[in-house]
Structure formats: C-alpha cells, structure tokens
C-alpha cells in the first residue's frame, strides 16, 4: 500500500465538499452505541450531527470494519430473524426482502442539478425522456424535508466510512454512508473497503462523498419491527453531483441502498470523471493470457444489467492454453496514464451477482466464490441449510423454502428464487482473482467490448472501424429487458454504454467526453468491439453456446489487438471474423452464416429507429460525430 502522506489528495477528489468549522466534538447528538464520537474529524462530525438531528435515530454505531464487529452485527441480525444462517456453508446467510423491494427503481431515481440540461438531454415535444430523471435542487430540498425528519426513530444509525478502490490509492475515492439498515452495513463491508483505515484517509483529505440512506420506516416505542422494513410508496434515490451527495429513501434492495455501487461509483463517479478527465463505467475488467505468451492482456466490457458481465469476468475457458483472471465484474474506473495507456481499477471489493443461472456448468468460478462469507438475498433455501435457484442444478430439489419463505416443490408452478436474487461475496474468495486487481494504478486495457441481448441481426462479434465508430456502437447499444430493474417482458430497449440507468449527467455530454478523450489519446486508445452471445435461430435457439466458449471470441479479439489484419473482413457494421479465423473446433454444428449475417433490412430498420431515438431522446445534445456515424452506417448499407 502506498504511503498515505505521499499521496496528493487534492488531485484525488477536488470538488468534494469541504467544511472548515466542525461541530464542537463535545456535543454528542445521540447515544453512541459503538465507536467514539470524539475521534471523528470535525467536518465529518458536523455533517453526521446534522443528519442525526434530521433522522433522529436512537443511537449511532460507527463502523470500524473489524471482524469482531461483523460477528456481533450478524449475531444481532440472526437473533432478529433478518438473516438466516446457512449451516451447509462457512459463514453464509440468507435474507428475504419485502416482495415489493426486489430491484432498482429507475423511475424513482433522480439527479439533481441547478440546470436540467446538465442532467438530461432535451427530448422532442411530447416525448418522455428515458435517459435519466432530473429534479430541481429546491424540489429535492422539499422532498428531503417531507421524508427524512424522524425517519430513523427507534433505529440505530450505522456510519460506514468506505473507500471505492484500494484505500488511499491515487484513483480511489472515499465516502461515508449513514444508514438505518444493518443489512446494508454488512453488505457494504463486503462490497467496499470499510472502517477506521478509511476514516484516517478522510481525516487527512477532509473529503468524502456524503451518502444518506433510510429504509423509511421509523418505529414507535414498543412497536415490533418487520423483517424487511421498506417504504415503496415513498422510495426516492437522489444524487447531487455538484456537492457529491447521495440521498436514498424507502428501499433496502442492493442497487438502491449500497450507495457505493451504482449511486457513487457510477452516477456521482461519471460526473466527477467528466470534470477530471476519466471514465466511470458499468464494465467488467478481466485478464487473458495465452500460456505461450509472457504478457497478460486486459479487456473491459459493458453489458447491461443481467447480460453476462459476472459470467465473462469469471470465464472458465474451454480452449486449452488460456488462463483468465478477474479484476472486477460490474464497475470500472478508467484513466489514461502518462504514456497514454488506458488503465482500469475495480472500485469495488466484492461481487453482487445474479444468482439464477449460476451453476457448475455455466460459471464454476462463481460457484467456488460464493459459499464462504456470503450474504444471499431472495434465493431459495434447501432442507439441509443450503441455497438453490433456477438453473443451479438440472433437477430441482424435491422440497425448498422459496424466496417468499413458503414451502416449494417442483410442481408448485412458480419460481423458487426471485429472478433478480443475488449473492454478495467478497472478491478475495474468487479463485481467479487477478494478481494486480488491487494495483492502485490499475491494469492496462487493450480492448473495450460492448454487448447486449440481441436475438436478431447483431453478429457474434464485430470490431469498430475506429474509436469514433466504437463510441457510436456504444451509443447504439440495445438489449432485451431483464429482471435487474422494474421493466417487464422481452422488449429490446436502448441501453447506451449499458449506462442508461446510471448516467450522472447529460448523455449527449457523456458521448462528447468519450469522443474528446479518444481524440486526445488517438495514438494509444484501445480497440472497440461489439459482441452478442444471445443471437437466436429462427427456431428460437441460441446460435452460440456462450459462457466458457466465449474465450474463442476473446481469442480473436486479442489477435486483432496484436495487429492481425487478415483475420477480418470489412462489413457495413465493422470488421467481422473471416470464417476460418475464429476457432470453432470441437463445437459441433455452428451456423456461421446465421451467426455472422448482417441483414440489410434489419440494419436499415435499425438505422431509422436509432435516428428517431437520437432525435427524440438526445436532441441538440447529440454530438455531430455520432450523427455522422449513423449517416455513414446507412450509406454503407446503401452502397
Ligand atoms: N446464453 C447465454 N447466457 C449467458 C451468457 N453469459 C451470461 N448469461 C446469462 O445471463 C444472466 C446474467 O448474467 P450475469 O453475468 O450475472 O450478468 P451481469 O451483467 O453481471 O448482471 P448485473 O450484476 O445485473 O450487472 C445469467 O442468467 C447468465 O446465465 C452467455 O454467454 N450465453
Ligand atoms: O444495481 C444492482 O441492483 C445490481 C446490478 O449490478 C445491476 O443492476 O446492474
Ligand atoms: Mn451491474
């Protein structure tokens, strides 16, 4: 770990709040059940004091991040019945949420800036924007006044100092989350680095992202608590990028309540990244090495929620001679270094992964990661104190307790685990964790992948013609809806850069930032690719086996990065592998023609749909370069 005194904190988090005068440390605003109020840095104490006065918790627990603390908190939750021990595994627990609180709620997620145009692009007359929700600062002030006073009555407020990225690292950033959910406190200590060592960093820098979270269900004296308190009618997840503040109310579900993740690392992060010249992205980071080569290459990939990031990050290669390592499975912070290389860190410390579909066949590495020190949410429980979900084994157990806590048998006609049920496991459990995963400088990225669930028209892999065309590919990204948010059904939806729910500022400005950064580093930018593991045959079957076989596609991508020109042909949508260049040995029947076709009718429809989308949703915020790429794509099909 770098010496803290050598780090330039000014450079690390310049815009974040700084308050000169602290509260008098003697004034303790409520009972302190754990930790010492006097030890808090003045600027932390004054902010926390104000939140205590607002939320009126019974007591304050300052998280120190020790093992003994973790054990005590878990014991307490077990006693209350909020988490259930899973004796089949080591230190694993299960929790069941309220059935109304199972996913992110995009419709109640807001970014608050003085000017609306900072947050969302201008939509066409009569069109509802789908690229984020803006809220005026005064309106948010008003909402906070309505929702928060007394919202933690009868509860403990947990104060969680956390670091996104290695503690004290030059690309890392600190936050403090205040929450009245002990489940959140425990989950945060898996997903981020927490505790006193982070507070020491905050003390030095005086800077942190302010995160306030409440389940929104105060208790009256003597009132018995429910297992999963939440307040779906009043849910609001709000962000103030100008002051680096996050305010979340009413939901305990991970994406809404573990504020380091989507709220900080992506929404606040992307806004900071634009100001400071870097990227905060919804991307996995993985390493790939051929046994006969010296060097490990790194790839990052943006796939929308529940579209295969965790699976690719933990890929178990079916081709001999390859070895894959995992740096991160959900979020990447990327920065060009002095040599112009794009370098990535994973700001997280754990995996909050989709459980259903995870099996020894599909993702054996995940299966080796999640049965120690893991907190499961909304999966089913087996009679021997283990967990189960759809797709974990071919045959379902004869009896389970389902995610709603009810008896379940295979003929009960409903899902045993919720489709968005999750495991929350520490990164250190992962047997293929990259040796440089905590390198504070990050790993050097050779390729950027975009991908989504596209049943039609989009080939298995294509390479962009250049950076600008690659940015266009990201802007044009679409995918079938999944269970990770409140959307229903099998609609193909736009999800540019897989960031649609996570942009911290105007998407048009975001594209401009990507274009500008590429132009500035044009000699050294990574290559950009589009992948699609999900194309289907006319009979509705996947054309590509996916999972571990995706290493074949990565192998082709790496050879392109090595400069092999003759393994690709130019198609109207970009470079596509020549038939013999992609290793399909041993795969049996692969319908190459269907897998790689770029049907003209499909793509001309795609062009006109994109034209309409950009016009209706992005308007004059759309950079001219993206419009030109769309025109050029159409021209190539009409040539
Ligand atoms: N057919 C097919 N399905 C896949 C493939 N990779 C992943 N999946 C399925 O996609 C679903 C979600 O995969 P994850 O890897 O958890 O998705 P994610 O992008 O990490 O999701 P978030 O955590 O929500 O951001 C699971 O049901 C997987 O089984 C693949 O290559 N082919
Ligand atoms: O945020 C969440 O709830 C989980 C997640 O990774 C996603 O949806 O992309
Ligand atoms: Mn995600």
TrEMBL record:
An example Gene Ontology molecular-function term: GTP binding
EC number: 4.1.1.32
Any GO BP: response to starvation
Gene3D superfamilies per the UniProt record, alphabetical: 3.90.228.20, Phosphoenolpyruvate Carboxykinase, domain 1 (3.40.449.10), Phosphoenolpyruvate Carboxykinase, domain 2 (2.170.8.10)
Taxonomy, superkingdom: Eukaryota
Catalytic EC class: lyase
Cofactor: Mn(2+)
Reactions mediated catalytically: oxaloacetate + GTP = phosphoenolpyruvate + GDP + CO2
Annotated Phosphoenolpyruvate carboxykinase GTP-utilising N-terminal domain residues: 47-274
Keywords: Decarboxylase, GTP-binding, Kinase, Lyase, Manganese, Metal-binding, Nucleotide-binding, Pyruvate, Transferase
Summary of subunit composition and partner proteins: Monomer.
Record HAMAP family: PEPCK_GTP
Purpose of the protein: Catalyzes the conversion of oxaloacetate (OAA) to phosphoenolpyruvate (PEP), the rate-limiting step in the metabolic pathway that produces glucose from lactate and other precursors derived from the citric acid cycle.
PANTHER family: PHOSPHOENOLPYRUVATE CARBOXYKINASE, PHOSPHOENOLPYRUVATE CARBOXYKINASE [GTP]-RELATED
Assigned protein family: Belongs to the phosphoenolpyruvate carboxykinase [GTP] family.
Record-given protein name: Phosphoenolpyruvate carboxykinase [GTP]
Organism per entry: Tigriopus japonicus (Copepod)
């Amino acid at each position: 770990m770098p010496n803290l005194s050598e780090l330039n904190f000014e450079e690390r988090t310049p815009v974040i709040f700084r308050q000169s005068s602290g509260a008098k440390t003697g004034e303790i605003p409520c009972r302190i059940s754990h930790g010492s109020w006097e030890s808090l840095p003045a600027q932390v104490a004054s902010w926390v004091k104000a939140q205590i006065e607002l939320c009126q918790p019974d007591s304050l627990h300052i998280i120190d991040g020790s093992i003994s603390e973790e054990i005590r908190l878990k014991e307490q939750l077990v006693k209350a019945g909020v988490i259930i021990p899973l004796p089949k595994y080591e230190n694993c627990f299960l929790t069941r949420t309220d059935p109304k609180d199972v996913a992110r709620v995009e419709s109640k997620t807001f970014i608050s800036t003085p000017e609306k145009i900072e947050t969302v692009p201008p939509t066409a007359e009569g069109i509802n924007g789908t690229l984020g929700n803006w809220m005026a600062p005064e309106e948010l002030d008003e909402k906070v006044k309505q929702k928060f006073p007394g919202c933690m009555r009868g509860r403990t407020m947990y104060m969680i100092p956390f670091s996104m990225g290695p503690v004290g690292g030059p690309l890392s950033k600190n936050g403090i989350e205040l929450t009245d959910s002990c489940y959140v406190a425990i989950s945060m200590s898996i997903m981020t680095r927490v505790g006193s060592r982070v507070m020491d960093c905050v003390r030095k820098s005086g800077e942190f992202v302010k995160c306030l979270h409440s389940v929104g269900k105060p208790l009256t004296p003597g009132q018995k608590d429910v297992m999963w308190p939440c307040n779906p009618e009043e849910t609001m997840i709000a962000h103030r990028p100008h002051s680096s503040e996050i305010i979340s109310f009413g939901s305990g579900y991970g994406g809404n309540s573990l504020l380091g993740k989507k709220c900080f690392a992506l929404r606040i992060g992307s806004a900071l990244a634009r100001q400071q010249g870097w990227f905060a992205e919804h991307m996995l980071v993985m390493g790939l090495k051929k046994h006969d080569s010296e060097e490990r290459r790194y790839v990052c990939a943006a796939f929308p929620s529940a579209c295969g990031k965790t699976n690719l990050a933990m890929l178990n290669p079916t081709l001999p001679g390859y070895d894959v390592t995992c740096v991160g499975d959900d979020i990447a912070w990327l920065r060009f270094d002095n040599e112009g290389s794009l370098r990535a860190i994973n700001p997280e410390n754990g995996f909050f992964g989709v459980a259903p579909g995870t099996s020894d066949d599909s993702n054996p590495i995940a299966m080796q990661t999640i049965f120690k020190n893991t907190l499961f949410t909304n999966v089913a429980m087996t009679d021997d104190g283990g967990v189960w979900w759809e797709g974990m084994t071919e045959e379902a157990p004869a009896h389970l307790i389902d995610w709603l806590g009810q008896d379940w048998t295979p003929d009960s006609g409903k899902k045993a685990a919720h489709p968005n049920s999750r495991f929350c496991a520490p990164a250190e459990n992962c047997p293929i964790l990259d040796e440089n995963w905590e390198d504070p400088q990050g790993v050097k990225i050779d390729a950027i992948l975009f991908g989504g669930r596209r049943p039609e028209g989009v080939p298995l892999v294509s390479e962009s013609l250049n950076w600008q065309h690659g940015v266009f590919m990201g802007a044009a990204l679409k995918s079938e809806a999944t269970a990770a948010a409140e959307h229903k059904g099998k609609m193909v939806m736009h999800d540019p850069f897989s960031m649609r729910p996570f942009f911290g500022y105007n998407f048009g400005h975001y594209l401009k930032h990507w274009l500008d950064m590429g132009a500035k580093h044009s000699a050294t930018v990574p290559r950009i690719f589009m992948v699609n593991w999900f194309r289907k045959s006319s009979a509705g079957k996947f054309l590509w086996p996916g999972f571990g076989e995706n290493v074949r596609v990565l192998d082709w991508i790496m050879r392109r990065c090595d400069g092999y020109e003759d393994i690709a042909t130019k198609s109207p949508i970009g470079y596509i592998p020549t038939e013999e260049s992609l290793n399909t040995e041993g795969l049996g029947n692969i319908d190459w023609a269907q897998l790689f076709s770029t049907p003209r009718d499909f793509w001309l429809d795609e062009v006109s749909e994109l034209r309409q989308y950009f016009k209706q949703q992005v308007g004059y915020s759309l950079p001219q370069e993206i419009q030109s790429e769309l025109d050029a794509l159409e021209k190539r099909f009409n040539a």
